[in-house]
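WARN retry 2 of 3 for item q-0093 after timeout on previous attempt; input resubmitted unchanged.
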Amino acid sequence: MMVSTKGRYALRAMVRLASLGPESYIPLRDLADQEDISEKYLEVIMKTLVKAGLVVGLRGKGGGYRLSRPAGEITAADVLRIMEGSLAPVICLSPDASRCLRQEECPVLSMWKEYQKTGGFCGTKLPEGMKQAEKLPEPLLTPSIKAEEGHDVNVSFEYMAEKLGEEMAQKVCDTALSLYKRCYDYAFERGIIIADTKFEFGLDENGELVVGDEVLTPDSSRFWSREAYKVGVSPESFDKQYLRDWLTENGLDGKTPPPELPEEVVQRTREKYLECRERLVTKG
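OK item q-0093 returned
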C-alpha cells in the first residue's frame, strides 16, 4: 500500500512550486528537468492539479505553473486526494511552517478528536454519545499507509481493498482483529487494557500473509491500567505517552534537538516498561 509514482511526482512538483513563492511561474520544461521527471508525464500531472484548483497554469512567454494559494494552506493530503483518493490532512507543504495551519481539522491527531468532529473514524461510523476512552462495541480496524515523511496516513477499509484486492484486505482485517482480541483478553486478566495496537503485514516469498516488525510492545500499543481506568478521562498509561508528555511540556517542537532527559524521567519511563513486563510475561 504505497503512494503511486504519479502521487509522488505530484508531491515533488508541488514542493518545488512551494519553494518559489506564490507569484512565481516555472515553465513545465524547467520543472521537469529540476525534478528529473518525463515532461509529457509531468504535463498530465500538472493538468490534473490545475483542474483541481491547487495550481494555476499560464500559457505563453513567461508562463508556466505556480501554486493557486500560499503553500501553508495546502497539505500533502490535498495533493494525494487528487492523485490517489480520499486521505486525511497530514503535513503542510510550506518549507518553513512550524505547525500545520489546518491542525485543528486534522483527524490524524487522534481518534477522539475525529470522533468529536465527524462521529466516526477511518470511514467507520461509531455510536453517538460516546465519551473519551469509552470501550467500543467491537474492536475497530483503522488501516493506515506509510507517508514519505512524518506520521502514517489513516485510510478507509475501502481504500485498502482497492489497493490490495477485496480478498487480501479482508484477510488482513480478520487476522489483525483475531490477534488483537486474543491478546486483549490475555492482558486484561493481568491488569492491562490494550486500548489500541499496530500490526504491520507483508507477504513472504510464497505470497503468504505474515506479520512483521514489533508486535504488542509499549512502543507500538497504548496500554492502560485496568485498575485506574475510568470513562471520560485520559487513562493512566504504561506506554511511552509519559515520555511524550514530558517532551511536549518542555518545548519539543519536532525540529530542534530534544532536551537532555533528566535521570528522574528516564527512571520513571523505565519503571513503566518494567511494570508492563512484570504483568504480562508469565514466569515459569
